[in-house]
Amino acid sequence: MIKFLFSPIIAILDFITKYFKTIVFLTIMYFVIYGSNDSISEDVINKSANLQKIELYGPILDVSKTLDEIEKAKNNPSIKGVLLIVNSPGGAVAPSVELAYAIKELKAIKPVVAYASGIIASGSYYASIWANTIIANPGSMVGSIGVIMQGVNTEELMAKIGISTQTVKAGKFKESGTPTRKWFDYEKEQLQSIIDDTYNMFITDVANARKLDVKNHTKYADAKVFTARQAKKVGLVDEVGTISLASDALIKLSKVENPIWKKQDKFDKFINKFISETASKVSMNFMSGLKAY
Hints:
Blueprint: H1 2-34, H2 37-48, E1 51-57, H3 64-75, E2 81-88, E3 91-92, H4 93-107, E4 112-121, H5 123-128, E5 133-136, E6 141-143, H6 155-161, H7 185-210, H8 217-220, E7 225-227, H9 228-234, E8 239-240, H10 243-254, H11 266-286, E9 291-292
Parallel strand pairs: 1-2, 2-4, 4-5, 4-6, 5-8
Antiparallel strand pairs: 3-9, 6-7
């Protein structure tokens, strides 16, 4: 039980111990091999860039960096359009909603094309719904529009090893979701009401953004997972194709004659992806609360 309770901290410390030296080594090697010339050339390109790619990768937890990229793209008059490249199974509800409405605000100023490179499901699909166009790779998985809350019951295990809890509380529902005992019926009902209300928000936003009938939500939602072609049939995506189709669609919507894509620092991209993926997987395994996942 003690090992289980402290396993998130142990996992994070283990990650830092394993990979800190690797990250430092890669940082040094990058500057030794590439030097400053690449940075100078990228700065020159970025000054004349008129299109930008923003990646939404891995489980959705901390989206501050992605929100910052969206905000900068929105306020940069040189950027005429944004390609949102998505490969994510979803994640926490609140940050997924934050991303969705950030994209909606961006779309009001300049066109946005969302491209599903692998998985665009649950929270990551929510994040993408307000794009002008959603294009899915032929091999991608789409949908899983649903909400879930999970927990464990460690009551029997605690009894076997001789551990019991002590609680002082105010409020009938303060222990809702506790892992130390079976949930009471009134707690389940209250938690179910939260799930149902969040799900209704999800399907309503999807219906409004995609111009679908919310009354028919069981056809395109209900936590079903679709292939790209199936998703197009039910209205979740607009086209099935590769990233070149998505890029061409954005160029057309943006009306740029000479498309120049903003460059992201290669090393920053690698490190951010590496850390984000590993830390997110650790955090997602132990995250409590609502998940659009």
